[in-house]
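Milestone 3.1: sequence recovery, worked example.
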């Protein structure tokens, strides 16, 4: 696991390696077990992502394979992130190093929680995801590029798969609107002018 640098501002593409966690209906309790939800901050959750799954197969879980350490793309299957709405799940994935997810479908709340962190969730057909997973299994250390517009993933050997990204989230990510903190900082002067004009803040 790497020390993460968290995304900020507009996001147009990412480069790096990918890790495949195959299987349908992987829920948030598997992504980050409930006992880790007592944390005061999200720091350290990256070390606990898929903790129970990894404990069942020491050294064999996809996230423990040496060739994918530092991976930034997660490739999954159908209905990923279902179950509890806990925001700890995408927080844990981000702190492990994940910056984007490709899958057949995602639970709606998980999808929204990822968007709030600047993690795009791309979708693709069943056959497309299986083809991408097969290519990554054959060359797990291969570098790739994921673009948001057009939505696609391309391996360093030239193979390319078209992906889908909803227009609203795509616009938010490309413009940086997903990042509420940066948006506030960028409009600091306007906020100050507005605050100075509010009677209840200025005693008139």
């Amino acid at each position: 696991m790497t020390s993460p640098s968290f995304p900020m501002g507009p996001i147009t593409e990412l480069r790096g390696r990918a890790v495949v966690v195959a299987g349908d209906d992987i829920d948030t309790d598997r992504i980050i077990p409930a006992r880790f939800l007592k944390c005061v901050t999200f720091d350290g959750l990256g070390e606990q992502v898929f903790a129970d799954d990894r404990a069942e197969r020491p050294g064999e879980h996809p996230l423990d394979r040496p060739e994918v350490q530092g991976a930034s793309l997660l490739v999954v299957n159908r209905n990923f992130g279902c179950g509890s709405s806990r925001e700890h799940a995408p927080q844990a994935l981000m702190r492990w190093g994940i910056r984007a997810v490709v899958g057949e479908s995602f639970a709606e709340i998980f999808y929204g929680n990822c968007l709030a962190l600047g993690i795009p969730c791309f979708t693709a057909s069943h056959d497309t995801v299986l083809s991408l997973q097969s290519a990554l299994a054959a060359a797990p250390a291969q570098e790739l590029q994921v673009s948001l517009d057009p939505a696609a993933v391309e391996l360093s050997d030239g193979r390319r798969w078209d992906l889908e990204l909803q227009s609203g989230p795509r616009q938010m990510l490309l413009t940086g609107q997903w990042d509420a903190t940066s948006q506030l900082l960028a409009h600091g002067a306007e906020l100050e002018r507005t605050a100075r004009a509010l009677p209840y803040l200025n005693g008139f």
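Strands lie at 13-16, 18-20, 73-75, 100-103, 121-123, 144-148, 151-155, 160-162. The first strand starts at residue 13 and ends at 16.
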